[in-house]
From TrEMBL:
Species annotation: Scomber scombrus
PANTHER family referenced in this protein's UniProt entry, alphabetically: DDE_TNP_1_7 DOMAIN-CONTAINING PROTEIN, PIGGYBAC TRANSPOSABLE ELEMENT-DERIVED PROTEIN 3-LIKE
Pfam families the UniProt entry points to: DDE_Tnp_1_7
Native organism taxonomy: Eukaryota, Metazoa, Chordata, Craniata, Vertebrata
Region annotated Disordered, chain positions: 113-140
This protein's name: PiggyBac transposable element-derived protein 3-like
PiggyBac transposable element-derived protein domain residues: 21-80
Amino acid sequence: MASTVYGRDPEDICSRWSNKDKGHVQVRRPAVIREYNDNMGGVDLCDRMLSFYRMSTRTKKWTSRVMMHLHFEVAITNAWIQYKSGSKALNRPAKNTQQYLDFKLHLGEELLDSPPFDDSSEDREEEYQPPTKTRIPQPEPSVRRLGARHMPEMRDIKHAERCRSKGCNGKAYMRCTKCKMFLCITKKKTCFQDYHR
């Protein structure tokens, strides 16, 4: 065995089964073996559980096989190991703790039963946040005050944009043809006029 932390010393004595003698015998054990025996159970248990119920993949592409192994098989196996250790910490009876295969099947059923994300629902209108995009820089004051060139235009967009007038948090469908800034034009708000004064 190779280790960057432990070596052979200090050795100790441990009891091991001998097929030759048909009984336990005392053997010398290097420090690296002692540490391995004390801390084993994580990677070994994961590898052992993975070998029982592997997911079948028809592809031979190594990238797909690695992704399937790491993102699905190892993740599910480690989740079951955490679930089992959590059940043990909660003193849950063994009969109430799902076995590895049952855990995988239950997880698959839950993923299949979960409703798909529907972003076309009208209920999600309030939760909608427009995607982040590069902001158009504010034009210079001399460009903003060119007068008749600044005309409002109604934009045919699904979701209103935030008004760019200082201090206004409203949403607008109206945009200035020159500045390309969305500004409010309503009975109570005069953001378009105030912006160009």
